[in-house]
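I trust your eye. Have a critical look at both lines of this record:
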Amino acid sequence: MSGLYPLKFKPIFLEKLWGGQRIKTLLNKDFGHLKNCGESWEISGVEGNISVVSNGFLEGNDLNELVEIYMGELVGEKVYEQFGNEFPLLIKFLDAQDDLSVQVHPNDELSKERHNAFGKTEMWYVIDADPVALINAGFNQPVDKLKYIESLENDSLIDILKYEEAQPGDVFFIPAGRIHAIGKGCMVAEIQQTSDVTYRIFDYNRTDKEGNLRELHTDLSIDAIDYSYLPEYKSKYKPEINKSVELAKCKYFTTNLLEFDKYLEKDYHQIDSFVIFMTLNGSFDIETEEGTERVEKGETVLIPASIESLQLKPVSGKVKLLEVYIS
């Protein structure tokens, strides 16, 4: 037995021009002196922004050190075989008080070839949204490469993008290659592959303080985009109480919604993976052989793969969390 326990990490807060205050006001996270906090990186193995443990005897150790020491006991044997010492997921909260640029992420093959990196498949769970806040995912009509290039040249890209009003609880799965953008007024939980490769396509012709347009990656994006058209991009699911409900499943991650108001037993021995809880509402205790860990709204916890069973006990009201693992 490794003695591993549910791990919490110090959030990594990022100032963004488009950021706001909801990471503090809605999720109770103190981002200190930052004026506009756009992102809270909850669990990250990205070089330069590696999460550091904030609880228990491993406090002060960073995530990549832990993966190196505990290997499969921490992340799961099959996960360690595939990814080695690199933690495979990046877990964030985002608060967009202005429109984010229209972007696309290359797939694994293209990222490897161009950047020696993984691609980026991701998903968003909408935590909060202003009235008429919008999210773009994909195209609103059949589009090919020529039509896409034409829309860039005549400044009509927005006309061919699918925008939907975002409501709390909405889920958008964004496989690598799908054009996308988070609109003004959206706050989301984001689960993604560990990758920082982003191609910025369009930034609404905004300029910085010096009057310069932001750098775009127009040429790189043309071959990275999946031009497939779908009539619907928003994921459908039916919430249930005291039961995990699947929101997204792909080879990179599985994400479930778990809402509970009573004592639950969870058995993870079949998945051979770490599990992550992102707490969206309520507070609860995680009970394991190593003891009890209290988790509050806004906190994210990493359950090591060596903990194959645990109990969840609500402390205040109904608890809502995202449950993430690699299956």
